[in-house]
Amino acid sequence: MAKREILAPSMLATLFVYTIIPWVNFDGIHFLMFHFEQHRFEFLFMAFETSTHQLIYIVLTLFIGLILTLNFTLSRFFCGYYCPSALATIIHLKFKNPFVLFAVIFSLAFLLAFSTVAYFSPAYELLIHFKEFGMAAIFVGIIATLFTSIFLLFRGWYCSILCPYYFISAILPQEEKQTFEFKDKESCIECNKCVKICPVDDLDIKNGFDERCVQCGLCEIACEDVMMKHSNKHSLISKREKDKSPLNNFSKNGLVIGIIVFVIMIGIVYFLLDNSLLDYCYFENKVLYR
After folding, report:
1. Is residue 287 situated within a structural domain?
2. Of the listed ranges 48-57, 123-132, 224-233, 235-244, the one predicted with least confidence
3. Which domain holds residue 178?
4. Is 261 among the domain residues?
5. DSSP readout, 95-160?
6. What's the domain count of the chain?
């Protein structure tokens, strides 16, 4: 049996953390905020005056550093257990009515888009002034439309071709990897549910293991549901190593390298916050130096 108790909760927990962080602040200083309008970087309820260039470099450093860190530790498990695209895959299975499906997918896309923009514009202000259709609200609309298109139309294509995380995973393969295998082919009823649920475009586990697999186990769950109803059998798809999980499946050196990359990322951000790198001083941040 695939690990349902890990799969869905991990996706929902990740979504919750991502959406709640922009709302967390103390005395007006956020837990994490790239405040371009007021030219400051806020982290752990501390604020640092920055130039626009510094903020751009910090965003890029954190983005690249986190992608590399997760690749060396979770690898492609991130795609299957934590990525919103995998959550969209499960939503596709739950809702058959196209109108309901669109409404749920768009709601998810809007939530992600709003939360993403809220990392750059205070969430409270964005919510209050959203109906005024300022620039931030327009960005929310654009990003929400983009997410909706990916989740509904281009999900597999995006994951296999355009996703930056998946691209890095392809050039940083894990030496040890939990894989799935298709067994008892004679019992297969050719429902193709395992192919339809796969978040990777044109990946068919029936043809044998594919290195593009994101190890999510959705094919095992889909097969189990069908086989239990059809012939009271367990899934025809199963892990080759039963004791493997997303939390203990990195390569021998993956965790160490991931920690090193994370430390380097923090070091670069600390260097970028050096006041000597300021292009010029912004007087609206005087409150930071009381």
Report:
1. no
2. 235-244
3. 4-274
4. yes
5. --SHHHHHHHHHHHHHHHHHHHHHTTS-HHHHHHTGGGT-HHHHHHHHHHHHHHHHHHTSHHHIII
6. 1
**Residue 239 to residue 221: CA distance in whole angstroms:** 12
Please state the pTM of the whole predicted model.
0.79
Percent of the chain, pLDDT > 90? 24
Burial class (CB in 10 A: 0-12, 13-18, 19+), 271: exposed
d(CA 247, CA 244): 8
Closest by Cα among 228, 221, 205, 244 to 5 = 221
User: Are 185 and 206 a contacting pair, CB within 8 Å?
Assistant: yes
Q: Judge whether 145 lies within some domain.
A: yes
Question: Is the pLDDT score of 91 beyond 50?
Answer: yes
Residue 289 falls within a domain, yes or no? no
110-147 pLDDT per residue, tens: 999 999 999 998 888 888 887 776 788 889 999 999 99
